[in-house]
Structures are given as C-alpha cells and as structure tokens.
Design goal:
alpha/beta, binds pyridoxal-5'-phosphate, 2 domains, 393 residues, Aspartate Aminotransferase, domain 2, 14 helices, 14 strands
Length: 393
C-alpha cells in the first residue's frame, strides 16, 4: 500500500449546526507545545479555564469544569450523576436533543415521562405544570437552544416552576453558550452543560459543565455509585480540584484551544458578543426574506446562532447544499428528523457570526436558487442585509 498524502483539509466556511468556524487564535493555541497533564503550567491553565468558564456560565459554582469529550458527554455527565435507577425524570421534547435526553435518562434506569411541543415551538410553564404536579419528578431536562429546530427556549420561568415542584433542572446549553445570555445563578439552573464547537469557535472535544451546590449535595448523597466511571464528577472533582488526583489524561492541547476560545469571548465582552450574534442573525434574516425564505421556528423565539429556514417549494435540498459546498466552500446543515428535506440549518456561531460569511452565503444561495428556477431579484438579498448593517452602525 502506498502511503497517503500528508493531510491537507479544504478550508471551509462552517455555517452549519456545528462545528462552526474555528477562530485562528484557537488553532494556533492548539499547536503549542504539549506539557504533562500534571505539569504546574497545565494546572494553572486548568484553574484559569475554570474561572473563565464560571464567568461565561455566569455562576459562582465551584464545580465548573470541562468534561474531556463532546457535548453529548456533557449531557450524559449531567444525567448519570444526578439520576439513580428508579428516579423519576421529566424531559421536555421539541426536537432531536430533547429526545436524546430521554434516551440518556432511560439508560440511567430512570422512570421517564415527557412533555412535548411541536418542532420549532417552545414550552411555557403551563405546558409543564400538570406533569410536574402529578409525576413529582426528581429531575427535569430542557434544551435552551434546540439546534434541530432553531427554537429559543426561555429558561427563567421554567426554572422557577421546576423548583417550586421541588425538582432539579438540567439545561442543555450546547448551542446557547457564548452566543446568547445563559445565567446559571440568576436563573437557578442546577446543572448546565455545553460543547466547545458551537458558539465557542473551538473544535469539538470538550464539554464545559457546571453543577450548583444543591446538585453536588445530591451527588454526594447517592445511594448507588455513578454507573459511569469516566463521568463520575466526584472523581473528576478531585482532578480539577486542589487534590489533583490523576483520573484520566486530560486532552492538553484541546484545553489550550478552549482556554483561548473562552478568553476571546470574554475579551470581546459577553454583551458585545451576544449583540454581534443578533446583528448577524437580523442581517441574514433580511437577506433571506428578500428571497422569500422564512424561518421554521416560532415567531419571537428564533435563535440568533441557528437559523432553521424553510426550503422554498420546488427547490432540491441536496443540490443546493452540494452547490454551496463545492462552488462556494460553505457548509450549511440539512434538516433532521421531522425537518429532513424541508429545512436548512444555517449556523451563525461564534467566529462564524460575521458579515463576510452572511454576505457570501446570501450571494451563493441567490445564484443556486436562481439556477433552480426560483424567481428573484439579483442582489436584493445582499442589499437587504447591508441595510441592516448600516442601520446597526
Ligand atoms: C450539538 C448538540 C449536542 C451534542 O453535542 P456533540 O458535541 O455533538 O456531542 C447536544 N445538544 C445540543 C443542543 C446540540 O446542539
């Protein structure tokens, strides 16, 4: 067998549901010299990363760190630690990631019940109240930014209702963190997890997570051992805490990447960063509207960083996405589950949320739609986006 060529990946514009465009500083940080995972330098980096993650999650929670695996491992870590076999767990399902929570909680041996909303819609307290009352769950799971539908779930009122029912709240902020406000302490979220590759502009591989003191207390008073050795936070805490007990070999260079990624968000300023995501979302939305493309998620509850839009009638999903990738170098996402073939998912996450990307996508999409016979006014989408930019200056 002849040896493959040295790797030379194409440079893509990543505007799908994640991974998103990686900030060049992050890639550079990941190429720095690897030190040992108990090296004093690395321990200092871990401390700094924890502190920056607290600021990002807007929490004082001591138990805040990054799980060495992707966002789904963050989800798994939240459930395996809080849930014991036989516990009652209630999950809010309005897309793919709520369904994944159901699967994870069921595998923990929980008795699981769901409340459901149609894809693209969000939950109100009234939707949860009857089951909270009848079922008396120990844990409730909900997704803040449902990446499969583009729906933006408000959390504060839900958190209130969950606590009044004496339950604990797990929030999936994989796509939310770094792109919109997440206020763990103010909202009273018990456990929140995320991933490195959405709005943090870092490659996939780490899952920031935070447990409040109440959640930690529940974990320390479990009747049974956490069934996952790798994700048992009481053991992970001894590594991230002051004892520094060896648990697993941390992915050193990934941590460098996340360190720089979170540092960049904090250096930009949370409010400035969230406003940038909003502005790019508004510009994209105006441009798409000029081509007659509308949003799939409920009005007033559309995410800035994940734009799920309806594919115009008669337009072939795969041809357009292939054209974007091959001719314009842009990746967008197709629909999942109920939205397959009906919806495109356009990500404006982190470093990807910038004007060059929006304008390039609109230009490419306009051309590809015209080729598919959609009647549109050439340049109108670009003009509409530019109007939003001028108004936002
Ligand atoms: C991407 C995503 C996940 C899963 O994260 P992975 O990094 O793919 O494991 C979970 N929840 C939501 C809302 C996501 O968008």
């Amino acid at each position: 067998m002849s040896l493959p060529e040295r790797l030379q990946p194409p440079v893509r514009v990543l505007m799908g549901p994640g991974p998103s465009d990686i900030h060049p500083n992050v890639l550079e940080a990941m190429g720095k010299p690897t030190v040992g995972h108990l090296d004093p330098y690395y321990l200092e980096i871990m401390d700094q990363l924890q502190q920056m993650l607290r600021t990002l999650f807007q929490t004082q929670n001591q138990m805040t760190f990054a799980v060495s695996a992707t966002g789904s491992a963050g989800m798994e870590a939240a459930f395996v630690n809080l849930v014991e076999p036989g516990d009652r767990v209630m999950i809010c399902v309005n897309g793919v990631f709520g369904s994944r929570m159901v699967d994870v909680a069921t595998r923990c041996g929980a008795e699981v019940k769901t409340v459901e909303r149609p894809w693209g819609e969000v939950f109100s307290v009234e939707d949860l109240a009857p089951l909270l009352d009848q079922f008396q769950p120990k844990v409730v799971g909900i997704v803040q930014a449902e990446t499969s539908t583009g729906a933006n779930q408000p959390i504060p009122e839900i958190a209130n209702a969950v606590h009044q029912a004496n339950a604990m709240l797990i929030v999936d902020a994989v796509t939310a963190l770094g792109g919109m406000p997440v206020k763990v302490d103010e909202w009273g979220v018990d456990v929140m997890y995320s991933g490195s590759q959405k709005c943090l502009s870092c490659p996939p591989g780490l899952a920031p997570i935070t447990f409040n003191p109440k959640a930690v207390d529940v974990i320390l008073n479990r009747r049974s051992k956490v069934q996952s050795w790798y994700l048992d936070v009481s053991m992970l805490a001894s590594y991230w805490g002051s004892e520094r007990v060896y648990h697993h070999t941390a992915p050193i260079n990934m941590s460098y990447g996340l360190h720089e990624a979170v540092r960049l968000v904090l250096a930009e300023g949370l409010d400035v960063c969230f406003a940038r995501h909003q502005l790019q979302h508004q510009a994209l939305k105006a441009g798409l509207a000029a081509m007659g493309i509308s949003f799939a998620a409920q009005d007033g509850h559309q995410l800035p960083m994940l734009n799920a839009v309806t594919i115009p009638h008669g337009v072939d999903d795969v041809t357009v996405r292939k054209g974007l990738l091959e001719r314009f170098g842009i990746e967008i996402g197709g629909g999942l589950g109920a939205f397959k073939g009906k919806v495109w998912r356009i990500g404006l996450m982190g470093y990807a949320a910038r004007s060059n990307n929006v304008l390039l996508l609109l230009a490419g999409l306009e051309q590809l739609l015209a080729e598919q016979g959609v009647s549109l006014e050439p340049g109108a989408s670009i003009a509409a986006a530019n109007q939003v930019y001028s108004a936002g200056r």
